[in-house]
Structures are given as C-alpha cells and as structure tokens.
UniProtKB/TrEMBL annotation, chain A:
Binding note for cofactor: Binds a copper A center.
Protein name according to UniProt: Cytochrome c oxidase subunit 2
PANTHER family: CYTOCHROME C OXIDASE SUBUNIT 2, CYTOCHROME C OXIDASE, SUBUNIT II
Transmembrane portions of the chain: 6-23, 44-65, 85-110, 131-149
Annotated GO MF terms: copper ion binding; cytochrome-c oxidase activity
Organism expressing this protein natively: Hymenobacter rubripertinctus
Length: 358, 617
C-alpha cells in the first residue's frame, strides 16, 4: 500500500514537472526569448559562474580546514616525515596553480560574457607567452621530479645491514608474520608444503628455518630500521601501514620488500593521540576477495629493550609443532641417511641474538 | 561517374571511394528507398552509426550510474539494512546486508562499463563517427561496412557484458583492472568464474570493435579530406579523434594479448601469470608465471586508454570554447603539438600505476620522470583554453557551460596527478581514495562533461532539432556542483589513507574518522545521478519535439554546418565544399560577420584578410 502511495506521488510529481516544462516553453515562445540569439539566460549563467567561484571557493576552503585534522594519519616513521613534508609542499604548489586557473576561468567567463555590439579580440597566438607558459610548468615539474626522485631512491635503496628482518605473508583473508629466530636467517619455505598447521610452508629440513617463529601481531623496535620481506601465497595483496607511510604489494611467486624506521612506540603514540586504545594497523590495499576490507593486523612498536624481551619469549614454530619437525626429520633421514643435529632449545640464546640484530 | 560518390551499393559493399570536390554528385538523390532495417539498424551511414553508439552509451551510463549508487549506499550507510533492495538484487542481499563479493562486482562493473562502454565507445564512437566525415568534408567513412561492423561488434560485446550481470555466480569482481591471480581463480572469488569468462569474451569483442573503428577513422582522416583541407586546417576535434584512433590501434591489441593469456591461464592450465599458489586447501601446479607481467600488459593499454577517453573531449571542448567565445582557439599549433606530445608520452608512462608492486625501483624513477613531463602539454592546453576565453564575447549555451566545466574539472583532477606521479608520494596514496578522486575528476567527470558538451552542441546536426536550453542549464549546474561535492571531499578521505574497494572501513581504527563525510559524498552522488534523468528526458524529448534547428545555429565555421538540416546519406546534396581557411576565423577584424566558415575563399573576404592571406586571394 505504501509502495503504491509512493509510486502515485512520484507519478504526480513527474506530471507536475512535465507541465512546468511545457509552460516554460510556451512562455519563452510568447516572450520571444526563444528566438533571440543571446537572451537573459546568458547574464544569469555568467553571474552563476561568479557565484560558483566565490561560494564554491569559500565552501572548499572551509571544508578543507574543517577536515584537515582528520585527514592526517599521525606519522611514525623516518621517511614518512620526509614524504609528508613533500606532500604538503607539492599540495601548496598545485594549490596555487588550482586557485589561479580556476579564478581566471570563472572570472573570464563572467567578465567576457556576451554584450551586444562588442566583438571578441582576434588573438590567434602569441609565441612569446606560449613559450613562457610551457617553460614555467616544465621548470616546476623538474623541481618536483628531482625532489621526488631523491626521496624515492633513498626509500627504495638497500636496507641497512643491521635491520631487523621479518616476513609478512598475505593470504585470503589475514596476514601471517614470521621472524627469523636467533640465527637471524629466515628458513626456506615451499608453498607445496602448506597445510592447516604449516601455514607458511616451512621446509624444516633447512636448518635456518628451525628456529623461525610466527606471531599473531607485528612487533618492531623503535628507532631501528626494519626490513619487511613480503610475499603472498594465493592472490595479490598489499601491505599498507598508513602510519608508517609504508606500502608494498604481496605477490605470489615474487617476494618483495620494504624497509622503514619506526620513530614512535605504540605507547608514545597513544599518549600523543590521547587515545589509550590506539594501535598501529596493517591493512590490505589490493583487492583480494570477499574479506579484503577486513584483512587487518596490529603492529606494536616497542622500546628496544621491550622488543628484545618479547623476542626472547617467542617459541619457534618447530618447537610448537614437533610433529611437523619430526616428519621432516624422518624424510631427511630416509633420503640422506644422515641424521641432522636437533637444535637445542633456542630460547636461551635468543636475547643475545635479538640484541645483536639491533 | 560512379567513382565520385559512393553509391548505396558501394558503401554497403565496403568499397566506397570518395573523391571530394568534384561534380557529378547530383545523382545521389536518386537511389532507391531504404528499408527500415537498412536505414536504422544495419546502416552504413556514419551518422546513424554515431547515434547507435550514443544511445547504447547512454544505456550503459544509466547502468554504470545505478551500480555506483548501489555501492555508495553501502559506503555511506555500512550499518544500515539493505533489505528493501531484495526485490531488485535478490540473493545478493544476505540477511539484510549486501554480499561483500557482490559489492566488489559492483565496483568492477561500474569501472568497466564507464571506462570502456561509455567513455570509449559512447564518446569517441559517437563523435569520431559523426564528426570525422562531416568536418573533413567526406561523404562517409572510408569503409561504411567496417564501420557498421564496428558498432555491431560493440553491440555483441554489450550483450555479453550485460548478460554477465545476471548469472548465478555474479559478474566479474576482481576490479576493472582484473589483476590475476584473483581474476584467474574461481576459488578466490565467485565472480572469477563464469562472470570473468564473459568479461573476457566481451572485452575481446569490444577490442575488435575498437580496431575496426580505429582503422576506419585513421584511413578516413588521411585519405578523404576535401579539397583544400590540409592537416593544418583540420579542426582540433579531428586532430584529437585522429590521434585517439592511433592510440587505440596501438594499445588495444596489447590488452587483447593480456586477455588471451589470461584465458589460457584460466582454462588451459598455462602459467603466464600464476606462480606458487596455495588456495582453497590446495597447492596449484602453476609455477614461474608473473602477476606483474599482466599489470604491465594491462597498463600498456590502460594508460593510453585514459587519453583515449579524454582526448576526444579535449578536441570537442576546444571547438566549443572557440565557437562560443567567438574567438579563435588560442595557439592552434600549440594545441596540436600538445595533443601529439600527450599521445606520444601516453605510451611511456604506464608503470606509474605500479610504483609499489615490487617493480624495480629504478624503473619507478624513470616512469616518475616521464609521467611528470606529461603535465607540461596538459598545462599548455589549459592555459590556451583560458586565453581563448580572455576578451571573448561569450555565449553561454549549454555546450559552452559544459566545456567550461570540463576545463575546471580537468584542472582540479589533473593537478593531483602531479602528486600521484611522484613515486615517493604514491607509496602512501596508491590505491587510496585520493586516486579514486583524482581519476574520477580528470578522466571520468571531465570526459563526461566533454560528452555532454558534444551532445548539446551537435544535437541540432544529429537530429535537426534543438535541445531545451533551460533544462540544459539545470542539468549543467546540478551536475557540476554535484561532481565537486562528490569528488573534492573524496580527496580528504584519500589523504587520510582510506583504501579503495573496501566494503566497509568500520573494522579499522585508522579509517574511522570520516563516516559523516562518506554519507555526504553518497548523498551528493545519488542526487547528481538522479539529476541525469533531466538530460535523458531532454535528449529523447528533443529528438521528437524539440524546436527545429537551423542549418548553422551556433554561427560556427566548420564544414558540418554547411550541410542541410535534413541530412541524407552522403552528407551534402550537391558538391562537397572545398576548404580555404583554418577553422577558427571568429571575430576577424574587418569581417562582415563574427565568423567566416572554412569554405569561404579569401577572395570573398578581402576586407578582413591578413597580410599573408592576401597572396591567397
């Protein structure tokens, strides 16, 4: 019944609009404005251009100022501070160009609206000003490119040797994280070995992998370079950490990497934001399927000492899954007929290794 | 005798040879009555084909807009029930909520439809077809038959794409860029099943249509120009259509190859794009493929594609601005030069879409450099448009308003390209709403504005009637303000890092701050979408009941306005006019009127001839 009512109202509205439209046509015929080449509408539109410029410009400025605080995710990385500065200085450059050109566009539209008896100025070209306004953007662009290129090479250059290394792996629809353990070497993995327990596909016949451990959230130390090794085991994902200005695709079959240096611990950021629940977040930023929008992991930035302690408390994957380790041992026994040395408990040596890595 | 004007049979046979400017054209009124099917359906007349492209494009635009309204509902009110959409969407509403995979299908199909079916086929298909023969002085396209095939391949492609909206597993849902492995594996998302297959088939047909059209446009512009119409006297519209066709011809085959390889990966077990994948509890046997290879192939088309979309709009806007400012376009040669520069550069910037894909950072540096160069010819174009308005005598026709709107939106969207082209800044902004806002302004909305400007401007020549100006004004202001209300705030959301293609942001603390702004954007988008029905009404009403047009209602200089109101196949009832001057002799000092058509010889305009033109008297 209500649907019918709504449809009826809509139909009536359409009829009213139709009648108004016909009426408008008839009045314009009777008033003769339909045959005039340039009528009052011209003046109205010219004024609207000016109003649009003034009111629109003011609304833009207001809304921008109003949203400014909300649109800056707080920065917590060294290169993030640099790119942020570059972003806003580039924004100022394009902002100036934006205002200048838009003002000219609508001001000219208003100012040079049709007037009877006036003739437009025949001005087909002028080489001098054309050269000038080709060169100016070229020079500005060159400056921006140079600044961007310098920063880009610095960010994507090789990670410092003493970086803390960890591996982030994307899968539908969550992130998995792996640390290299006390030997500071990530072990070999093979996607064919993946199953419900061995989500990374650890190949534990590789000694480097025996002390690797996985974690439910990412921990990194403040003030030390962190090298993310990134891969995916199914479709494309992208590691996106807005607070650190970090983004890199996770590509199946092609490991990628990104390094950065965190500058603020989670606690410091909580204090700065006045939000005791604040957490750094890792999001997926490349469409990956149904759960794309919920593919999240927390990142904890610790003081270096806390990081070392946390590192020491982690149990290696092989330790937590002795069955998996045993199955590899069996296989390698069979194949090589030579027993490998079972590593002693890793935990005791870890703090030293973690410290060494800092 | 028959060689001078393609008779009906010749045009249909695809061997029409048009030699312009000679006598013996009179017999063209004699040919027999065409049946309805020949005249309106399987027509080889470029004007009819143009209208077919336009109306199909309008149909697709309504579909594409409806899809966007649906996902804006989800983004504006992520917590609300969508139960009321069940009669419309059926099983895609689950327990009052939009299915997240269907959400991805919506954004995928919105992008595909708008970029390819509306702004490529609907825009360049319509106006390249309609204007090339009319503005260069030709009876028809070089091959009317290929031209007809071009439309019908597009139609077939449309049917396939449209049918994919209704299948059980849903339409393609891997994003309009269909990056594998997501698009290759039905296990990954249900849209990558039959929906993706139909998408690929449809796009293959679409590419055939584009190539048939493109070859024709290029051949026609090169071979069928009327007497005196040298390349340096071509209207900028023709230059832009010509270069657009070249871009399409060189880049669409690469998309075809990408689609073909993807079909192989999906159906025949190859590993071009697949490697080391464990999905749905199973390790796949594919190794050695590279998903990044697909992205290179895709964007090798994908980037020229945005210029394929925008260049025809640039050409038409140049034409309309000059006509209605009653001034020559400023820097005609610089405008051609910048079109050439953009065309060339558009082939060597594609990897700026891939800065953070793991591509070698050195390549990133190269592409950043090339990308920012392309801003220079774009800036030159903007300055020239502004200079064209300066000291003009502006008539605000609806087409003129949309052209001014085009320039405004092109500036607003183009400038943020300078930010995104900077690889260091793209790290943060890649795939955020900043990108979405950027390309919706610079290629989406701008190209749409070019399309509307073109329709309002050339409607009298298409249908012999005028569109209603008042409705046009309402349509313009509503759309113009609407577009800014949607896409300016979207930059804020993007700077805050909101990822695109998210069903909801509610799961993240980082993305919790702009719920109200997203509602606002949704309201603006939906209102602006409904505003388009004003245009659609105006368009169809005016076809049948609009005020009758005169031969040259805008006092324009180009050749199409020398044709009669009732246009037959063959365009000019008598001889094709010869061309004597460039297309922008507006408000020439000393001239009797404020425009001198291209076909008026210098000998008739001695009072206004410039010194170097005196020799040509």
């Amino acid at each position: 019944m209500t649907t019918l009512g709504i449809l009826l109202v809509l139909a009536l509205l359409l009829v009213v609009f139709g009648l108004l439209f016909r009426l408008q046509i008839l009045t314009s015929i009777f008033s003769g404005s339909s045959t005039r080449e340039v009528g009052t509408s011209n003046r109205v539109n010219a004024i609207l251009c000016l109003i649009f410029l003034v009111v629109g410009g003011a609304a833009f400025a207001w809304s921008f100022a109003d949203s400014y605080d909300k649109m800056n995710p707080p920065i917590a990385s060294v290169h993030g501070l640099a790119t942020e500065k570059m972003f806003w200085s580039s924004m100022i450059v394009i902002g100036i160009a934006f205002v200048l050109t838009q003002v000219l566009l609508f001001w000219y539209s208003y100012k040079y609206q049709h007037q009877d008896g006036r003739r437009a100025f025949f001005f087909p070209h002028n080489n001098k000003i054309e050269v000038i306004w080709t060169l100016i953007p070229a020079i500005v662009m060159a400056a921006l490119v140079f600044a961007g290129w310098k920063e880009w090479t610095r960010i994507t250059g090789p990670a410092p040797k003493d970086s803390v290394v960890l591996e982030v792996m994307g899968k539908q629809f969550n992130w998995l994280v792996r640390y290299p353990g006390r030997d500071q070497k990530l072990g070999v993995v093979n996607y064919r070995l993946i199953d419900a327990t061995n989500e990374f596909g650890f190949d534990l016949s590789d000694q480097n992998g025996v002390d690797d451990f996985t974690a439910g959230e990412i921990h990194v130390p403040k003030g030390h370079p962190v090298l993310l090794r990134i891969r995916s085991r199914d479709v494309l994902h992208a590691v996106y950490m807005p607070n650190f200005r970090v983004q890199m695709y996770a590509v199946p079959g092609m490991p990628t990497k990104f390094w950065f240096t965190p500058t603020k611990t989670t606690d410091e950021m909580r204090a700065q934001m006045g939000n005791p629940n604040f957490n750094y977040e890792l999001a997926c930023n490349q469409i990956c399927g149904r759960g794309h929008f919920a593919m999240k992991m927390s990142i904890v930035v610790d003081e270096p000492d806390d990081y070392v302690n946390w590192f020491a408390q982690q149990k290696s994957f092989s330790e937590q899954n002795p069955d998996v380790l045993a199955s590899f041992k069996q296989k390698s026994d069979k194949l090589v007929e030579k027993a490998t040395v079972v590593p002693t408990t890793a935990a005791a040596v870890v703090p030293a290794a973690a410290k060494a890595s800092l | 005798m028959a060689a001078n004007f393609p008779t009906h049979e010749q045009v249909q046979g695809g061997i029409g040879v048009t030699e312009p400017g000679h006598a013996h054209d009179a017999h063209h009124d004699e040919h027999h009555e065409q049946s309805f099917l020949q005249k309106y359906v399987f027509s080889t007349d470029h004007k009819v084909i143009a209208k077919q492209f336009l109306i199909t494009g309008i149909f697709w635009a309504i579909i594409g807009g409806t899809l966007s309204s649906l996902f804006r509902l989800q983004l504006g009110w992520p917590e609300s029930t969508m139960e009321w959409l069940t009669p419309f969407l059926g099983k895609w509403i689950e327990a009052g909520k939009l299915n997240p995979e269907f959400y991805l299908a919506l954004v995928t199909m919105h992008g595909t439809i708008m970029v390819f079916f509306v702004l490529t086929a609907g825009l360049s298909g319509t106006f390249s077809n309609f204007l090339i023969p009319l503005q260069i002085g030709a009876r028809d396209m070089a091959s009317g038959f290929m031209n007809m095939l071009s439309y019908w391949f597009f139609f077939l492609s449309s049917v396939v794409m449209f049918s994919s909206l209704f299948i059980e597993t849903g339409p393609a849902a891997a994003g309009w860029t269909i990056y594998p492995p997501l698009s290759a594996l039905p296990q990954a998302i249900s849209g990558s099943g039959a929906g993706q297959t139909l998408w690929l088939v449809s796009m293959a047909l679409f590419i055939i249509s584009q190539l048939l059209g493109g070859v024709n446009y290029i051949t026609t512009v090169i071979n069928l120009r009327t007497q005196g119409m040298s390349m340096s006297k071509l209207p900028l519209t023709i230059w832009s259509f010509f270069l657009t066709a070249i871009l399409g011809l060189l880049s669409f085959p690469v998309l075809f190859s990408a689609a073909l390889l993807l079909i192989f990966d999906r159906s025949f077990g190859t590993s071009f794009f697949l490697s080391d994948i464990y999905i749905a509890g199973q390790a796949l046997s594919n190794t050695g493929g590279s998903p990044i290879l697909f992205q290179h192939l895709f964007w090798f088309l994908g980037h020229p594609e945005v210029y394929i979309v925008i260049m025809p709009a640039m050409g038409m806007v140049s034409e309309i601005l000059a006509t209605n400012a009653r001034k020559p376009i400023f820097g005609y040669r610089a405008m051609i030069g910048s079109l050439l520069g953009i065309s060339l550069l558009s082939f060597i910037v594609w990897a700026h879409h891939m800065f953070v894909t793991g591509m070698n950072p050195f390549l990133g540096s190269v592409f950043m450099f090339l990308t920012l160069i392309i801003a220079v010819p774009s800036a030159v174009k903007v300055f020239n448009w502004l200079a064209t308005l300066w000291r003009g005598n502006i008539r605000f026709t609806t087409a003129m308003l949309f052209s001014i709107g085009f320039v405004s939106l092109f500036i607003a969207g183009g400038l943020t390209g300078i930010i995104l082209g900077n690889a260091a800044l793209d790290i943060q902004l890649h795939n955020t709403y900043f990108v979405v806002a950027h390309f919706h302004l610079v290629m989406g909305s701008s190209a749409f504005f070019g399309l509307w400007a073109g329709v309002y401007h050339w409607f009298p020549k298409m249908f012999g009637r005028m569109m209603d100006e008042k409705l046009g004004y309402i349509h313009f202001w509503l759309t113009f303000i609407g577009v800014y209300l949607v896409f300016l705030p979207m930059h804020y959301v993007g700077i805050a890092g909101f990822p695109r293609r998210y069903y909801a942001w509610t799961g993240f603390d980082t993305f919790s701050q702009f719920a109200d702004l997203n509602k606002f954007i949704s309201v603006a988008a939906i209102v602006a979408f409904f505003g388009q029905f004003i245009f659609i009404f105006n368009f169809f009403y005016s076809i049948f009941r609009g005020r009758r047009a005169t031969e040259n209602p805008w006092n324009s200089t180009t050749l199409e306005w020398t044709t009669p109101v009732e246009l037959g196949h063959g365009n000019w009832p008598g001889e094709i006019p010869a061309v004597h001057r460039w297309p922008y002799d507006y408000s020439k000092p000393g001239a009797a009127e404020d425009f001198i058509p291209q076909n008026v010889p210098y000998s008739q305009t001695q009072s206004s001839n410039l010194p170097y033109e005196k020799e040509m008297e």
